[in-house]
């Protein structure tokens, strides 16, 4: 027989199913997010970078045209002979990347001065794709681009372009290598991913950071449809062959201003074996890039990619299986939280779980260079937890109403509240347990029914039953049923009562005292005068929801119940024998017999209550005689055992 425990599977399986559906939906969303959701998810995780205290390699230098340089030499763009003078002072550098375009001609001699300097340096020039001034490449320009393009490619998935903006021809031809300067932003216009290369017509043009690595390390980038390898280093990439870059604190970079470079005491050896990116960072001149750590000059994004390559800290997204493991872990922890009964505790642990998810993402980032888009497991947690709490609230309300409806007629109001609070202890459906059963019945009630009108009889019985039920409820009893003028009560069911036999005896004595007070208004010959016998027995019985599925009946069945009824029936005969013995001069410990208790009940109360044996009592339906005891309720009242 199926039992109903607090938040049992029957009650919670709807939550489990909904949580599983949420898991599948959010997991699918995490694998193929729309662009805006992907950007929002990344924004939630951008705080990871606050935990990055590493510094980029001191091999990298940003030569910047910033505010002091503009104050010294005027607003950008400068005369190209000035630029040539500055670049010439970089001759000790190992690799130089130009994050700038010289796409418009100036005076011929100054353009030629710059071109001559460029031919002497290990320098990489810039190409801007798909810009407003981009145009179709000439055959000569395309041929030169092929010299800078990647050759070890096998159908990679790249951002495509047919147009490009190149330096003017005299400068273009003097540059040993060219590279793309584009950095594609996410949907929220923040730069988180670095494109390794671009399709430019039929050529694969590497980005500036990749080209600087190729020149500086003599290692080539190999691209396939699903992988990227730079030398021996496998690079984590997305579907567009972009890698997620790991930003450093902005003040961690080694920076040299153009104004400092042009000082008479400049030591060119400061840049010996350095990789230098030359670019503009003056706010009024350049486009600042929105990044997860704030506004950065574009050249620093290229340098960040290079620094990640040098210290092997490019960020890898979790694999599909790793992400699924995260979701399943959250799901299992939610299942554990849902086993708790206190809503505030569930809320607190769910909140703690959310914090734990975030810091698990931080730990993966800080220690393993793994990027968990924490938005997705948090979204799953929020959806499942909120839905689960709503479900539990509705289910608890329904269960509370069900319990109150089911037990309010049988159990005292205070116990109904306890039942509602301790619903997990209920086993509706039947279970075998120890309990004490009390049966009471009115003696000689037939004349009363014949002498009283029906309405008066019903009113009289209702007042009597009210008193009896009050006594049952007062001592933690449960009214099982009213059978005509008989009352059946259970103790230790449905709620546990460690002293159920004692409480049943107190109830019986209280019922007899209540009946005595009830009869004060009537003479013994009055048909309103009621007499009662009570039987109490303790033993094992099957207790629970017994009957048809559409007919609720919480009751107990078993030999212990039958014996209780037989003891009640025997009180009349034992009392007659007792009275006859008294008339014959025998000394009896009490004047009458109203309550008989069974052996196990007696063993539970013998040291606390006045009980007198009745040996070898033959009960109807019992093959062998039983021992019973008279419970002296009058002496209990004298001893003030009843409150």
From TrEMBL:
Entry keyword rRNA-binding: no
Entry keyword set: Membrane, Transmembrane, Transmembrane helix
Pfam families assigned: CHASE2, Guanylate_cyc
Domain spans labelled Guanylate cyclase: 436-568
InterPro entries per the UniProt record, alphabetical: A/G_cyclase, Adenylyl/Guanylyl_Cyclase_3/4, CHASE2, Nucleotide_cyclase
PANTHER family attached to this UniProt entry: ADENYLATE CYCLASE, TERMINAL-DIFFERENTIATION SPECIFIC (PTHR43081:SF1), ADENYLATE CYCLASE, TERMINAL-DIFFERENTIATION SPECIFIC-RELATED (PTHR43081)
Protein name: Adenylate/guanylate cyclase domain-containing protein
């Amino acid at each position: 027989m199926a039992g109903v425990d607090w938040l049992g599977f029957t009650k919670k399986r709807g939550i489990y199913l909904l949580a599983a559906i949420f898991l599948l939906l959010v997991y699918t969303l995490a694998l193929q997010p729309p662009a805006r959701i992907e950007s929002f998810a990344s924004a939630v995780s951008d705080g990871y970078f606050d935990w990055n205290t590493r510094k980029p390699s001191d091999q990298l230098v940003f030569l910047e045209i910033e505010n002091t340089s503009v104050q010294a030499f005027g607003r950008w763009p400068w005369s190209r002979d000035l630029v040539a003078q500055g670049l010439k002072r970089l001759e000790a550098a190992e690799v130089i990347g130009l994050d700038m375009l010289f796409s418009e001609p100036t005076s011929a001699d100054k353009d030629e001065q710059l071109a001559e300097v460029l031919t002497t340096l290990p320098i990489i020039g810039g190409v801007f794709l798909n810009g407003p001034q981009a145009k179709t490449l000439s055959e000569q320009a395309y041929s030169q681009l092929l010299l800078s393009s990647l050759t070890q490619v096998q159908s990679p998935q790249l951002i495509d372009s047919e147009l490009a903006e190149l330096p003017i021809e005299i400068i273009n031809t003097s540059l040993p290598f060219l590279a793309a300067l584009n950095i594609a932003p996410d949907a929220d216009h923040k730069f988180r991913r670095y494109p390794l290369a671009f399709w430019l017509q039929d050529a694969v043009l590497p980005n500036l950071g990749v080209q600087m690595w190729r020149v500086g390390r003599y290692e080539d980038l190999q691209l396939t449809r699903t992988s990227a390898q730079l030398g021996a280093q496998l690079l984590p990439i997305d579907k567009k062959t972009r890698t997620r870059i790991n930003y450093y604190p902005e003040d961690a970079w080694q920076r040299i201003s153009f104004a400092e470079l042009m000082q008479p005491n400049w030591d060119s050896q400061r840049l010996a074996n350095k990789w230098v990116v030359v670019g503009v960072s003056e706010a009024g001149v350049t486009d600042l890039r929105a990044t997860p750590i704030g506004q950065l000059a574009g050249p620093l994004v290229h340098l960040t990619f290079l620094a990640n390559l040098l210290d092997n800290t490019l960020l890898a997204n979790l694999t599909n299986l790793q992400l699924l493991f995260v979701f399943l872990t959250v799901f299992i922890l939610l299942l554990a939280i849902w086993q708790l009964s206190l809503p505030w505790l569930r809320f607190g642990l769910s909140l703690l779980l959310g914090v734990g998810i975030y810091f698990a993402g931080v730990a993966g980032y800080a220690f393993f260079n793994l990027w968990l888009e924490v938005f997705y497991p948090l979204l799953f947690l929020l959806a499942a937890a909120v839905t689960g709490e709503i479900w539990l609230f509705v289910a608890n309300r329904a269960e509370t109403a069900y319990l109150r409806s089911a037990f309010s007629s049988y159990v005292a109001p205070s116990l109904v509240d306890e039942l509602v609070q301790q619903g997990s202890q209920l086993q509706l459906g039947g279970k075998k347990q120890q309990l004490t059963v009390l049966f009471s019945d009115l003696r000689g009630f037939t004349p009363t029914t014949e002498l009283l009108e029906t309405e008066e009889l019903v009113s009289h019985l209702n007042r009597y039953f009210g008193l009896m039920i009050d006594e049952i409820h007062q001592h933690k009893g449960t009214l099982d049923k009213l059978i005509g003028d008989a009352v059946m009560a259970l103790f230790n069911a449905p709620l546990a009562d460690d002293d159920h036999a004692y409480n049943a005896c107190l109830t019986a004595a209280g019922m007899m005292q209540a009946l005595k007070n009830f009869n004060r208004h009537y003479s013994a010959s009055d048909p309103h005068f009621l007499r009662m016998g009570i039987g109490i027995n303790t033993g094992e019985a099957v207790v629970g929801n017994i009957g048809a599925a559409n007919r609720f009946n919480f009751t107990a069945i078993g030999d212990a119940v039958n014996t209780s009824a037989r003891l009640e029936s025997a009180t009349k005969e034992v009392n007659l024998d007792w009275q006859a013995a008294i008339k014959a001069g025998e000394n009896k410990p009490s004047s009458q017999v109203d309550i008989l208790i069974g052996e196990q009940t007696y063993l539970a109360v013998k040291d606390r209550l006045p009980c007198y044996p009745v040996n070898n009592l033959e009960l109807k339906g019992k093959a062998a005689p039983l021992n019973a005891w008279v419970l002296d309720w009058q002496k209990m009242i004298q001893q003030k055992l009843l409150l």
